[in-house]
Amino acid sequence: MVLTEKPTAAKKIATALDEKRSPKEVKRGKTSYYECKRGSDELIVTYALGHLFELQQVEKGWTYPRMESKWVPKYEVDKKATNTRPIINLIQKLSRDVDGFIVATDYDVEGSLIGYLVLKYACRADPMRAHRMLFSALTETDLEKAYDTRGALDFPVIEAGHVRHEVDWLYGINLTRALTLSIKRAAGWFKVVSTGRVQGPTLSFIAQREREINLFIPTPFWTIHVIGAHNDDEIELEYSRRQISSERDANRIVSELSGQNAIVSSIEKRTVTQQPHPPFNLSSLQAEAYRQFGFKPSRTLAIAQGLYLDALISYPRTDSEMLPPTLDIKNILTGLGGIKDYTSMVATILRGNLVPIQGKKTDPAHPAIHPTGERPIKQLPPSDKKVFDLIVRRFLSLFGEPIIKNHLRADIKSGNHCLYARGLQIVRKGWLEFYEPYFKPEERALPTIKVGDTIHLVSVDSENKYTEGPARFNPSSLLKLLERKNLGTKATRSSIVDSVKSRGYTQGERFELSTLGYAVFETLNRYVPEMLSPEMTIRLEVEMERVQSGLKSRESVVTEAKSELLRNLEEFKNKEDKIGETLVKGLQSYWRDTEELGPCPKCDDGILKIVRSPKTGKRFVGCSNYREGTCDQTFPLPQKGTIAPLDDVCPHCSHRMIKVISGRRTWTTCINWSKCPGRQEDLKALDERRAKRNGGAVGGQES
Amino acid sequence: MKECRICGRDGTEEDLCEYHSAAYTSLKSVFEKWAAAVEELTWEKYIDSVRELENTGQWIREIIDDIRSQDDS
To answer: C or N terminus of chain A, fewer CB within 10 Å?
Structure first.
């Protein structure tokens, strides 16, 4: 029995291992498995759906501390995971009549653990007697090789996965329950407020950046703009100091240069070569996809995972920036040459030296992300096509010549002042020929001047500017920070980045800390700062890596984690009342900020609030006196996106304004948009657009 | 412990929370830098200019509004 991680992988693996490349799919209710033949081996290929088993607490009660857990089928923990039940049952049944087991899940910590848990809890097999296929791409060649060279299970890797799950479970449920129950005790509400081992430090980074932004005071500086005349040409010149820190100095420079002549004292030409960027690992792919397409890291990972399952690229969860010498580059290039968009580029590369540029980072399990050379068998969706093209072009660029650029700088003197004229010339495009859509250095011609020429300074101005504050995190920069701080793993970071947003701790595309985020951060920071400390998490990460290297036992790491957590929880318990009060205050303020829209215009003593209909689940604005039956004022709301009440009122109807954020689009409107006299034109246009598209956002002015 | 007169958080000193207290300290210390850069700068002109700038932090804006309202009263 071959155990795979997903249905798509099962099909690929079964096809690759079957002698005739035509395995038989056997349907069993809602699930299935594959039968194939390879030499004298008769193989059954089954699949999981990621994790089929999850941790569940042993002791009863929704309280804390809870330190003991056991592995149970996922459907027992997650009520939505009903699709795992028939799969576990099928594997259980089939496993009774097989001679041996081969784990062919993804070659990483999670994949190894998934396979181990299925073996242990579904097949009831002895993992010591099972085999492991190791592969970095789902191509037939790679899979056949992995089958022929299969070895024993990698137990330290399994233990590392095991310890990570246990520690994350311990921290996640205990800290979340501690926070939630403190609110219940203080106010009697049941509002789940979550935190976790990595989420706490992540929130802390965002709060620290928010503090810097909120305390930022721009300081003034001046820049000097000079236009010179040479023959009949106007030349834009740079002043040697980019920033002048005082108005007096800026004025003096302007007055000393205005109307003067300047002499070209030297022209320097610097030729530089630029090597291709290294091959992608997961984080550099995520950063580039965010820069080029605006894709969130989690989206890029999901797309890359899909491309991997289609055997179009190698395994994406890798830290490596290196391609191994054993990789059949010629074969990959030949395959890519069959794709129309790359045919001519590949032909050029195949004429040259097939030695790729390598990066520095390594990964013991997988090479850098690269195309496999297989052609997509169906038309890829636009997003997948973009990521695939990015990966292919990055791969092709590794074989390109370095770019050669000439940087030209003319030094122009006038009295004690120095001015520059600059130019940039690309002498050889090199690897840019392959990667050009994603990297464009701007060429600028150097004016036709020579040493000794006189330039008349016809216009000299100063411009008052101000320093800019620190930027908020975007998904890519936050992910990079977590990687730099060694928090989480390449597989978990993007979901952690998503979680701070989905839990309401931040708002907007740019991770602006919400009132709720502040409340949670401030409370933890004041009473139990250890829960926000990256040091504790980083220390645990190091310990978990030691488990993977076989240097430490899982039991000792879990025991240490438990005793540290118990200490924190005890401290928390002692301050539970105060923590609860602070969180309740924060939550009230959060709800005021996000749900309240000021006094009701109809009854005057009610407050307008964003509420959801218990019947339809749709949101609308309603008066707080509605329940008492004394006011029936309501306003409809757009159903898609996030709504943020604004302080402004509508200039047309004096109702409160709201901001609607849906994906990357943001627009403002008033709560009375359906009847507002100033918005009827917009509504008409919207109706027309809807008629065309049969869908879309509601009302308001897009910005 | 007094509440912050600006945001209602728990105050530390002079009925300001730690954020608005830090904003006030920062506003005073950056004035020197501004005074060295801008000719004939008064405190009032300084806070007016800072208040109008797009990148000025939220807590700085709020402490400036508070200073102005106290000056008015």
So the answer is: C
Rounded CA-CA distance A625/A541 in Å is 52
Q: Which chain A residues are Cβ-neighbours of B39 within 8 angstroms?
A: 247-248
What distance in Å separates the CA atoms of residue A164 and residue A543, rounded to the nearest whole number?
10
Quick one: which of B63, B70, B2, B69 has its CA closest to B31?
B63
Q: Is residue B9 part of a domain?
A: no
Mind listing the pLDDT tens digit for each residue in A250-292?
999 999 999 999 999 999 999 999 999 999 999 999 999 999 9
Alpha-carbon separation of residue A130 from A93, A105, A120, A553 (angstroms): 18, 13, 11, 22
Instruction: Determine the 3-state secondary structure of A163 from DSSP.
Output: helix
Mutual angle of helices A155-187 and A554-574, in 10-degree steps:
10
B56 in A contact zone (CB under 8 Å): yes
Query: What pTM was computed for the model?
Result: 0.80
> Percent helix, strand, coil in chain A (nearest 5)?
40, 25, 35
Domain interval for residue B24: 19-72
For chain A positions 442-471, those within 8 Å of chain B (CB to CB) are 466-469
Q: Considering only alpha carbons, which residue of chain A is nearest residue B30?
A: A217
Q: Which of B27, B37, B39 sits opposite A217 (nearest CB)?
A: B27
Give the count of domains, chain B.
1
Beta bridge partners of A76: none
Average pLDDT, chain A: 91
Picking from A214, A245, A467, A578 by the largest number of B CB atoms within 10 A of its own CB, the best residue to mutate is A214
Model confidence at A526: pLDDT above 90? no
Minimal Cβ distance to A215: which of B36, B39, B57: B57
Looking at residue A663, what is its pLDDT? 66
For A399-414, the pLDDT digits (tens) are 999 999 999 999 999 9
- Which residue do the tokens 């003197």 mark? A413
The answer as to whether B30 is a domain residue is: yes
* pLDDT beyond 90 at A540: no
